[in-house]
Here is the input.
Amino acid sequence: SLYASKIISYAQRFMLIREAAATYGWKLNNPAIALMWRGGCIIRSVFLAEITKAYRDDADLENLLFNDFFASAATKAQSGWRRSIALDATYGIPTPAFSTALAFYDGYRSERLPANLLQAQRDYFGAHTFRVLPECASANLPVDRDIHINWTGHGGNISSSTYQA
Here is the structure.
């Protein structure tokens, strides 16, 4: 649990740094950032050398979980990670860092989740629109554009930009 959660923690750190760099136009040297953390920083870790290697091998690496070393490590840790969190929950032991790391991992590696239902709920309650999956398309449900469904049969056709409460 600890090892896999640490991998997720570092993956999230580099995701945040990547987003900030895109927003502010920063030029980053991710291998150097990992090395900097290794030398004298409170968050130093042995596998920072692996992070450095991952970014040296692929300067445009979108996420550490796309690197073979880290993907394999997270996959191998999954069973024990899940058992540990389940046991913790059974005994009422809060492990929020481990639990949220696993939830992030599950969400990040899954193309579709039950949470996609939230799009329909948001459209029903607030006319926020949604996109239809290609395999669900029909004449009434077109693909590749945002649509709104008149779920209740009254209230007219509205979109989030024209919705008036």
In short: The CA atoms of residues 39 and 132 lie 49 Å apart. Residues 2-24 form the longest helix (23 residues). The helical segments are 2-24, 30-38, 48-57, 68-90, 96-109, 117-126.
